[in-house]
Amino acid sequence: MTRASAWVTYLQVAPLTLVFLLFLVVPIATIVVVSFFDYNTTQIIPAFLLQNYDELLTSPVTWRTYLQTVEFAAITWALTLVIGFAVAYFLAFHVRSATWQTVLFLVCTIPFWTSNVIRMISWIPFLGRNGLANMTLMQLGVIEQPLEFLLFSNFSVVLAYVHLYTLFMVVPIFNSMMRIDRSLLEAARDAGANGWQTLWNVVVPLCKPGIAIGSIFVVTIVMGDFVTVRLMSGGQSASVGLMMMNAMSLLQYPAAAANAVVLLLLVLFTVAAMMRLVDIRKEL
Questions:
Q1: Nearest C-alpha neighbor of 247 from the set 69, 29, 117, 62
Q2: Model confidence over 48-75: pLDDT tens digits?
Q3: 19, 228 in Cβ contact below 8 A?
Q4: Which of 27, 149, 183, 201 shows the greatest Cβ crowding within 10 Å of its Cβ?
Q5: Would you list the DSSP string of the chain?
Q6: What is the pTM of this model?
Q7: What are residue 145's phi and psi, to 5 degrees?
Q8: CA-to-CA distance for 115 and 136, rounded, in angstroms?
Q9: What mean pLDDT is reported for the chain?
Q10: Is the Cβ–Cβ distance between 78 and 251 less than 8 Å?
């Protein structure tokens, strides 16, 4: 009977294991193998060379690109955390009606009803030199000439990231806040804690799993993105994803694969550091 139960368990796990192997393990293993291949202008040559990694890790351009990518991820993470926490806090503690919580939460998802690319492009007529923002500020007398940094700059890239990915921070933090026992907040107030003390000593510690999950979502997506940087920077900025796309457009697949492996290791290291700081299993 025990052996039959074991076989049933294996059969239940088999489909998920097969999907995991085919769509995650095999593609990643293929990328790792190809990263050691040689190449020329027309073909990929099977081999075992460290040349791709050597060129990648010894290039100052590569280091600057990785630093730029990490900078984008860090700034986006900080801004989405502040905005996402504020929105989640308002929905969880200031909106009493469950119906209104649902309605307002659905309002937050409205931007996701359309394509990311369309949402990014919609910023161009607003931030452009003759866009709505510059024209309004000039008419109000705040500025005398258009602000050039609003579009096709690091500012516009970060703005698009925050616009696109704040909801990934709102959802897990809101989920954590809804699980907080409201009697804990009442106990903190009865003990003489003010609003900020209650927030910092009660709400934030209990929201750490949600913050960690949202941070993982935002950081991993931003570090692997290339479309946003390409569209919103106008070629003024670079990212690791964009560097890989350019390599693939030149048929330099082994070089792009080596870049992907290094980026994967960097992302895994970042996620591992977050998981060591917070036990996200409490949220799952």
A1: 62
A2: 889 999 999 999 999 999 999 999 999 9
A3: no
A4: 201
A5: -HHHHHHHHHHHHHHHHHHHIIIIIHHHHHHHHHTT-EE-SS-EE----SHHHHHHHT-HHHHHHHHHHHHHHHHHHHHHHHHHHHHHHIIIII---HHHHHHHHHHHTGGGGS-HHHHHHTTHHHHSTTSHHHHHHHHTTS-SS--GGGSSSHHHHHHHHHHHHHHHHHHHHHHHHHTS-HHHHHHHHHTT--HHHHIIIIIHHHTHHHHHHHHHHHHHHHHH--HHHHHHHTTS---HHHHHHHHHHTT-HHHHHHHHHHHHHHHHHHHHHHHHHS-GGGT-
A6: 0.88
A7: -140, 160
A8: 28
A9: 87
A10: no
Q: Which two tokens stand for residue 260?
A: 């992907």
Structure tokens at 45: 């040559």
φ/ψ of 45, rounded to 5, equals -110, 115
Q: Among residues 253, 283, 269, which one has the least CA distance to residue 45?
A: 253
Q: Is the pLDDT of residue 150 over 60?
A: yes
CA–CA separation, 60 vs 75, rounded Å?
A: 22
Q: How far apart are CA 139 and CA 231, in angstroms?
A: 28
C-alpha 56, offset from chain centre: 24
Tell me the mean pLDDT in the region 141-145: 85
Residue-wise pLDDT for 41-50, tens only, equals 778 889 888 9
Closest CA to 238 of 257, 259, 252: 259
Q: Are 74 and 218 in contact (CB under 8 A)?
A: no
d(CA 227, CA 219): 15
* Average pLDDT, integer, range 233-257: 88
Q: What is the 3-state secondary structure (H, E, C) of 21-88?
A: HHHHHHHHHHHHHHCCCEECCCCEECCCCCHHHHHHHCCHHHHHHHHHHHHHHHHHHHHHHHHHHHHH
